[in-house]
Description:
20% of the residues lie in helices and 22% in strands. By secondary structure, the protein is of the alpha+beta class.
Amino acid sequence: xxxxxxxxxxxxxxxxxxxGAFVSLPEGKSGMVHISEVANSFVSDIKEFLKEGDxxxxxxINVDDAGxxxxxxxxxxxxxxxxxxxxxxxxAERRAPRPPRTGQFQGGGRAPQSKQPRDPSTxxxxxxxxxxxxxxxxxxxxxxHNTDRKSGSRRRK
Length: 157
């Protein structure tokens, strides 16, 4: 089987660095999984997710002109229909996959606020960030409004 972009393969982790993991592929080839392509959640330490010798399912996302093969573990899991983990050994049960996003806040004022406060332990990072940014923007607008009024620097027509 040739290495074409989009192919899903199984390989063995042969090395781990701060920025990613090297995976041995069939036909004696080797590719790299960047740290951002390991999991759907933020990965600060790749060793929490992978260790040398783990067998992983990867998707080929790019083969550049120099012959380097870029791989993704999280993209291989997206199209996987079964509930089986994508790798064997290590800490496969450590993190559950994040639920898919249903909508994005598109800016332009305040973010829609739900009527019930949400439990921060169940919120995704993106939800927490949206909530923080909306609160921050609201506070900054109030500060700008009060500062402009006090200093008289408002534009007058």
